[in-house]
Amino acid sequence: MKRILLMKLIYKIEYNSTSFYFKRLIDELIKNSNIDANTKQYFGFILIFIDDELENIEKFFLNLETNLPYSMFLKKSYLIDEFNEEIKELEDKNIKENFEILTNRKVKDILENSNFDFLSQIVNLNRSFVVKFQDLELFLPNKNLKENFEKDNYEIRLLVTNSQILTDLFIIEEPEINLLCSIERPLVKLKLKNIDENISNSGYIFTRLVNSSKEVELSKALKEQNIDYILYSTKKDELKACSFENLNLIISDDKTLYPKYDYKKDLIFNSSSEYLNSFSNVYNAVLHEHNLLDKTSIGVYFSLYSKNSFVDIKVLNEEEKRVIYIPDIESNMNQILEDISSLDENCKRLVDNFSKKYPYTKDIKLSNNSGFSTIIEAIAKLLNIESIKDFEELALNSGYVDALQIDMKLIKIDNKNYLDYRKTIQSIMSYKMADVENETLSFSFYEFLAEFIIDYLREIARKTNAKDIVLCGDIFSNRQVFHKVYKELSKKYNLILPTEYAMDYI
C-alpha cells in the first residue's frame, strides 16, 4: 500500500508592488496544477499556502519555476515556518492593467497561430523608408533617418525582436537581461559592444523587447527576413527602468503600470505624474511609499525635469526644511558667462579668453530647460557637446579615468545655501582652456557631483542624527552617480529609494 505524505507549507515571494497581476498569474498556475493551495498578497510580499501531497507539491514548484514569468518587482522567494497573521492582507481592487501580459505560453500560441503579413512593409524598410506600425515609426538602423528624428527632439529606441542576440549585440549583465525579459517589458539603457553610428553615436541606447501580441507577430515576420532588431520612434510614454546593486528602479512611467490603486492614500491614480503631483515633491512621495513620514530623514532630489532640485531634512514633529538649493538659472548663455565674469578679474579674463579660443561660444543657444538641467546643458554646450544625453554618455564611455577636481561649493544668498554653479562651470572652462579632453571633463563632473552629494549628506546626517537617506530624481538613473553614492553611503545609512513608483516626473 502506497504511503501518502501530506505536507503544509508557506511559500513567501518578496514582491515590491501592490498591483495584483502577478498574484493572478500564480493563482492561474495553482488552478492548472490542480493543487490544494491559495495565495494572499501583503505590502512587500505574496504568500502561497499549500496543503497537499508531497508529490503534487514537487510538481507544482516545478510548474512554478517553468511557467511563472519574471517581474521587475520580484525579489527573493523561499519557504517560511510561520508568519504574523495580524498583518493586513491587501484587497484586490480588480484594476485592469494597462499593458499586455505576455507569458511564455501566450507567446508560443501567438507564434504558432500567426498569419501576419508584413512583407510589403519589410520591402519598404529595406529601401530605407520609415514604416508606421501601431504607435511606432519603425526603420532599420540608418544614421540619416535617426538624425532626422533626433532633430525633431524624438528619442530613438531599439526594439529587439530576437532576444537570443542580446549578448551578441550588447555588453549586458544578467540583472539587465532579467529586467528586459520581465513581464513589464521596460526600456533599459544598454551599451553596444561596438559603436554603430547607424544605431547610436555614443554606443548607448534605450532598448526593449516586444511587449504586445501584435509586436510578437511583428518579431516573427522580421525574423523570417533575418531582422533581429529595429529602431523606432514614438510619441507614446513608455516605461523606463534600470538595474543597479540588485535593485530594479523605475526611471519614469506615465501609463504602463497605471491605473494603480494606492492603498495608503486609498485612491486610484491614472498616471505617474498624477501620483507624484499629489505630493509636495518626490521626496515626500518616497517617504509615503515606505511609511517614513514620521521619522527623521534626509532627502536628496536631483532632477533634469523639475526646476526644484534640493537637499531637504525632515525632523520628527517639525516641518520639512530645505538645507541646499540648486538654483533655477535663466537659460541664457550670455547671462551665465556674465555671472561667471562677475566673480573676480581672473574669471573675467577666463571668459574673454575662452570666447576667443572657442568662437562657437557666442552662438550657443540653450533649450528652455529649468533647474539643474540648465547648468548641465550650459557645461555641455561650452564643451561643444550637442545635448545633456551626449554629455552623460560621454562620461559613461570615458573608461573611468582619474577625475579632475570640479568645484561644487555652496554659497549663502539670503541666508540660504545654494550650489554656486558659477564656480562649477568656471572650473570646467579652465580645464577646457588647458585642452583637457571632453571625456575626462564629463566623467569628472559626475564624479564630483556624487562627491558633493556624499559629503553634504554625511555632514547633515551628523548634525541631525538621521539614519534614513532618500535618493530620488532621475540623476540617480546615472550609473556613475548612483554607484558612487550608494557604495559610500550604504555602509552607514539606510538608503531609501522608490521601488514601486517612478524616481521622477517625465
Describe the model:
It is a single chain. The protein is an alpha+beta fold. The chain folds into three domains: 6-92, Alpha-Beta Plaits (2-Layer Sandwich), CATH 3.30.70; 108-236, no CATH class; 281-506, ATPase, nucleotide binding domain (Nucleotidyltransferase, domain 5). The chain is 37% helix and 22% strand. It has 17 helices and 22 strands. The protein has helices at 21-33, 54-67, 104-113, 119-126, 143-151, 166-169, 174-181, 213-224, 272-277, 282-289, 333-341, 345-357, 372-382, 388-396, 421-433, 438-464, 479-489, and strands at 6-15, 37-42, 45-53, 74-80, 131-133, 136-139, 157-160, 170-171, 188-192, 204-209, 229-234, 240-244, 247-252, 260-262, 267-269, 297-301, 310-314, 321-325, 410-413, 416-419, 468-472, 494-496. It has a seven-stranded mixed beta sheet with strand order 5-6-11-7-10-9-8, with helices on both faces. β5 and β6 (136-139) form a beta hairpin. α1 packs across α2 (54-67). The longest helix is centred in the last third of the chain and has 27 residues, at 438-464. The radius of gyration is 26 Å and the shape is globular. The model has no long low-confidence stretch (mean pLDDT 95).
